[in-house]
Design a protein that fits this description.
about 100 residues; mainly alpha; two-stranded antiparallel ribbon; about 10% strand; extended
Length: about 100
């Protein structure tokens, strides 16, 4: 198992290192840059969607609660407006924690 972890760590390191190394001259095209501009929003959605929405075998489709739904709605709206990811995360977290612990 340690060999597998070490191998995955080396693969990850060299994939990231290749973009910063001087000997590799790679510049993605306009279409790739446009495609990658959506990756942070896709990752953010991949994080919150399983937390908020789930499928239970007995009750079917469920959601976490109103505080989660409002926080996610704020995050989705800000993401659609193409607000920077850090602003989306901080604002939606502030709304969530404000509803959850203050109100």
């Amino acid at each position: 198992m340690w060999w597998a972890i070490t191998g995955m760590a080396l693969i990850t390191f060299f994939n990231r290192y290749a973009f910063f190394a001087d000997f590799v001259r790679y510049s993605p095209g306009a279409k790739v840059k446009r495609f990658l501009s959506y990756s942070s929003y896709a990752v953010l959605t991949a994080i919150w969607a399983p937390i908020v929405f789930s499928v239970d075998t007995q009750t079917g489709f469920t959601h976490a609660g109103a505080d989660y739904l409002i926080g996610v709605s704020v995050a989705a709206a800000l993401s659609l407006l193409r607000v920077p990811s850090i602003v989306v995360v901080l604002t939606s977290a502030a709304v969530f924690f404000g509803i959850r612990f203050v109100i």
